[in-house]
Amino acid sequence: MEHKMEVKISLKPGVLDAEGETIQKSLSLLGFDVKKVEAVKCYRVTVDAKTEKEATARVEESCKKLLANPVIQDYSIKVV
Hints:
Elements: E1 2-11, H1 18-29, E2 41-48, H2 52-67, E3 73-79
Antiparallel strand pairs: 1-2, 1-3
């Protein structure tokens, strides 16, 4: 059975988000009143697994091994 998962990767609190800061400054220069921008990556992953729990475990493992850097990034997994 196919399970569609959404993975969001963001920087941990205290880690400099240079991309987000650059976008925020650029938006301000264009006249948009924006206080803060955070760069977040989003992946949609489809997994073939018997159960939702098994699919989530596989995606969690892929986050630990490839998708996220656990030193500076957090991730969340949601079933879609």
